[in-house]
TrEMBL record:
Name of encoding gene: LOC100383406
Source organism per UniProt: Zea mays (Maize)
EC number, as in UniProt: 2.4.1.80
Protein name per Swiss-Prot or TrEMBL: ceramide glucosyltransferase
Subcellular location: Membrane
EC supergroup of this enzyme: transferase
Pfam family, one: Glyco_transf_21
Alphabetical keyword list: Glycosyltransferase, Membrane, Transferase, Transmembrane, Transmembrane helix
A GO term, aspect molecular function: ceramide glucosyltransferase activity
Length: 517
């Protein structure tokens, strides 16, 4: 045996013994508990989503062929549709990525029967999105109320928030609800109607939201983003009240912005970096209700060329959010999230590092006396087996929730291309779980000490939780998380019954549709 081998064996034996100390065993059991808590949360979320599926199937059996739009088919009669409130959809755009056009089509072809306008907000006419969305609006001009608004450059807040606030200023004077959407959201035909129905049913709702179901494109970066979103998804699958808010889909009362209730306009405009974190903080401060209906889950196909560096850029933007705040209470909450998330992330990863050492020690033991003594005197393989079992339970629960949400999305979009679970690589999912949890604290710590971030070619600097300086750098023409599928065209003649239109088009659901792109 060479000196190098002896040194390595000694280190392996020492690590094996260290990782079976009382403290190390506690760390490994903690990691197993984290796996089981995640599995339990995803199991609970799947029950909520399954409830929607069962209800839709029951309605279909009872003769409601349009259960993907509403529970009661009578709601589709023209007499009901003509009394629906006006909704303005505000969508800030930045660049023209791989799948933006497809996503925009699913948004403007909504089957909402009430007055509906779309406001596409761009920074300038030089933005690649400007001409693309203008052509799309021209294509649907006979059946669509939409316009492109040039917002100009932001000076006191993030460009996204600036665009949103300009959109609110330009919305119709009779608008009752405003729906903020990201350009990578793929809507179901009944989404706007479902959100509006809940707002009408419960006026106490301050914000209504939903959450994306990531469809990885095959790269490790795309699986890391899928894994990053999955733990958060259980907070949106409550079937009602939640403390979570996703900026990709937010429906609010238009008058809240007109009257600047709770300081939402000033809170966003004066140094706001993150729309959802700012509004969630305001909701918590004023004890306002955030609501997430169980049907608000949206397929989110990720870009086919989503590299690991683009994932890292996305993670940096997400962790940077915790550095912004609107009040001292919000600052304390963000610090608590920062600390707990970093602790749990590395608390999740460390047991796998320890398990790797136990396995290597067991494999080396037959060839090294010192390693064999350390391995024989420990119960490391028992801990490995325990961690393996808990990990398997966690992955099965994640797989089950993904399967249920895919099934729900397919039912909510019967005309859309079918989403499949077959495309998921669960080996890469496991690797992504480890990579994402390892890198999250690294990204969070870097964000804390840098206090600056590059977001779509714009660098923001924070001071006291608010944007204090904005520098514009070389911007990218592409978004990080683009979608990749088309929906069919869904419009119906004005002054006609939506139910009648749906009946006429029901037989065409599975016919191919072509568009010139």
């Amino acid at each position: 045996m060479t000196a190098m081998e002896a040194a390595v064996d000694a280190m392996l034996a020492a690590a094996s013994r260290a990782f079976t100390s009382t403290f190390a065993i506690a760390i490994q059991i903690q990691g197993c508990m984290i796996c089981l808590v995640l599995a339990l949360g995803w199991a609970a979320a799947s029950i909520v989503r399954k409830g929607v599926i069962k209800n839709m199937r029951r309605n279909i059996v009872d003769g409601n062929s349009f259960a993907f739009l509403c529970d009661n088919i009578d709601e589709l009669e023209h007499s009901v549709q003509e009394n629906l409130p006006r909704v303005s959809v505000v969508m800030p755009l930045k660049g023209f990525g791989e799948h933006n056009l497809q996503n925009w089509r699913t948004q403007i072809t909504s089957l909402y029967g009430g007055p509906l306008e779309f406001l596409f907000i761009v920074e300038s006419k030089d933005d690649p999105a400007y001409h693309a969305v203008s052509r799309l609006i021209t294509e649907y001009k006979d059946n669509l109320e939409a316009k492109v608004v040039v917002a100009g450059l932001s000076t006191t807040c993030s460009q996204k928030i600036h665009n949103q606030l300009i959109g609110v200023e330009k919305m119709h004077k009779d608008t009752k609800y405003v729906l903020f959407l990201d350009d990578d959201v793929r809507l179901h035909p009944g989404t706007i109607g479902a959100l509006t129905k809940e707002m009408e049913k419960n006026p106490e709702i301050f914000i209504q939201t939903g959450y994306p179901l990531d469809l990885p494109s095959g790269s490790l970066g795309s699986y890391c983003i899928y894994e990053y979103h999955m733990p958060c998804s259980m907070g949106f699958a409550t079937g009602g009240k939640t403390f979570f808010l996703w900026g990709g889909c937010m429906m609010m009362h238009a008058d809240d912005f007109r009257q600047d209730r709770y300081g939402i306009v000033s809170g966003l405009r004066d140094g706001g970096y993150s729309d959802d974190m700012t509004l969630a903080a305001i909701a918590g401060q004023h004890k306002r209700l955030i609501f997430s209906p169980p049907v608000a889950v949206f397929p989110h196909p990720l870009a086919s060329d989503l590299s690991f560096s683009r994932y890292w850029n996305y993670l940096r933007k997400q962790t940077f959010v915790l550095e912004s705040y609107v009040s001292n209470v919000n600052w304390m909450m963000n610090r608590a999230l920062f600390t707990s998330h970093c602790y749990l992330s590395w608390g999740f990863v460390w047991p796998y590092i320890m398990a790797l050492v136990h396995v290597l020690a067991a494999l080396r033991a037959p060839y090294s006396k010192v390693v064999k003594e350390a391995s024989d005197s420990s119960w490391g393989l028992f801990l490995v087996g325990l961690l393996f079992t808990c990990t398997l339970i966690e992955l099965v629960s994640m797989w089950n929730l993904t399967k249920v949400e895919i099934q729900l999305c397919n039912m909510l979009s019967p005309e859309g291309p079918k989403v499949s679970l077959d495309s998921y690589n669960w080996g890469l999912v496991f690797i992504a779980v480890l990579v994402d949890n390892f890198l999250y604290p690294v990204s969070a710590i870097r964000s804390h000490f840098s206090q600056s971030i590059n977001w779509s070619g714009i660098r923001y600097y924070l001071r006291d939780g608010k944007i204090s300086k904005i520098e514009r750098e070389n911007s990218s023409k592409y978004t990080d998380l683009g979608g990749k599928h088309l929906y069919g065209k869904r419009t119906y003649p004005p002054n006609k019954s939506l139910l009648g239109y749906l009946s006429r088009t029901l037989v065409q659901w599975h016919q191919p549709k072509k568009y010139d792109v």
